[in-house]
TrEMBL record:
It holds the Pfam family GFO_IDH_MocA_C3. SUPFAM superfamilies: Glyceraldehyde-3-phosphate dehydrogenase-like, C-terminal domain (SSF55347), NAD(P)-binding Rossmann-fold domains (SSF51735). It comes from Actinomadura bangladeshensis. This is Gfo/Idh/MocA family oxidoreductase. InterPro entries: Gfo/Idh/MocA-like_OxRdtase_N (IPR000683), Gfo/Idh/MocA_Oxidoreductases (IPR051450), GFO_IDH_MocA-like_dom (IPR055170), NAD(P)-bd_dom_sf (IPR036291). Residues 128-237 form the GFO/IDH/MocA-like oxidoreductase domain.
Length: 341
């Protein structure tokens, strides 16, 4: 039996504490240390040392590290891990700018290291089931993807706005569930909370197959909502990622003797099905997949979000912000890597 992988964690904020909880119980992995500059033991599992610096963690010897510090520090921490020859699971977004994300991709790829991005929605049971059903053609041609992600402002977020913190979820999951790339975006943002960053965005986009996307995201609502609706030739799927429920609304068939309406090709309400699907914790699934990727090594068949896929999401989010700033539609260059979605 092989020795457990030695993992480290950088950051003990809200998300970092969740990573610590999962890592401390993950089969085949030992959490050997947590980096938190404040040195606060709160949130660290019993017996796991809380360290002041990344150098202290690297001195312990780790196979990979989870980066859950503020987005502005992702590049610095990631580059240091790559330089040390350590793989990394970096929380989303990959970096605060396209240029920083590109440098991270180059650093890990040039050293042939396993690295991924923590786009956790990919592991939500409702979205995984939706993607499988779309791939099987159950919806026919896809016409539109609509996402709504809203709720109260999280005071833990200080370095980025709602586009980079929340809309990146929807950008990544939309490309992933459809298997399509973004070709253009048009967006509007507002800032109403007194912060320097935007706290509401409405974006419209087009994917490479011609389908339309709509993203509504904000930090200004007392209602917490996480919904993805995919409409196609045979009906629509509705995924609620808060409850991990997936519902299918079928197009109905209804005959009419009214000659004027008979010529109109529309749809009518049909059957509704709520699927029974296993509901495992997405964060646990994410960690299991990344553990398996580290064990398989570079070039292995790993179901993780690659750094290049994370880079593409940063590129699209940057285009959303550019569109809002310029008041125009922004076209995106084609993705450089096959399978970028």
């Amino acid at each position: 039996m092989s020795a457990p992988l030695r993992a480290g964690l950088v950051g003990l904020g809200v998300m970092g504490r969740n990573h610590a909880r999962v890592l401390s119980g993950l089969d085949g992995v030992d959490l050997v240390g947590v980096v938190d500059p404040a040195g606060s033991p709160g949130g660290a599992p019993h017996g796991v040392p809380v360290l002041e610096s990344l150098d202290d963690l690297l001195a312990l010897g780790v196979d990979y590290a989870v980066v859950a510090c503020p987005t502005a520090l992702h590049e610095e921490v990631g580059l240091a891990l790559a330089e040390a020859g350590v793989g990394a699971l970096i929380e989303k977004p990959l970096a605060e700018s396209v240029e920083a994300a590109q440098r991270l991709v180059k650093a890990f790829e040039s050293r042939n290291l396993v690295a991924g991005v923590g786009h956790i929605e990919r592991y939500n049971p409702a979205l995984q089931s939706m993607r499988s059903r779309l791939e099987a053609g159950e919806l026919g041609e896809v016409f539109q993807v609509v996402t709504r992600r809203q709720g109260p402002f999280p005071h833990r977020i200080a370095d980025v706005g709602v586009v980079k913190d929340l809309a990146t979820h929807d950008i990544d999951l939309t490309a992933w569930v459809t298997g399509q790339d973004y070709v253009s975006v048009s967006a509007h943002t507002v800032a109403r909370s007194g912060r320097p960053h935007e706290d509401m965005v409405a974006a419209v986009g087009r994917l490479s197959d011609g389908s339309m996307v709509n993203h509504l995201v904000n930090w200004l609502s007392p209602l917490k909502e996480r919904t993805t609706v995919v409409t196609g030739d045979r009906g629509c799927f509705v995924a609620d990622t808060l409850t991990a429920d997936l519902t299918f609304y079928a197009n109905g068939e209804m005959s009419t003797e009214w000659e004027a309406l008979r010529a109109f090709r529309g749809v009518s309400e049909g059957d509704m099905i709520r699927y029974a699907i296993p509901k495992r914790e997405p964060l646990l699934t994410e960690h299991e997949r990344f553990r398996d990727a580290v064990l398989a090594g570079p070039g292995g068949d790993a179901d993780i979000v690659t750094l290049r896929q994370g880079l593409r999401t940063v590129e699209v989010s940057a285009a959303v912000l550019e569109s809002a700033k310029l008041g125009t539609t922004v076209s995106l260059r084609a993705s450089e890597v096959a399978g970028a979605v």
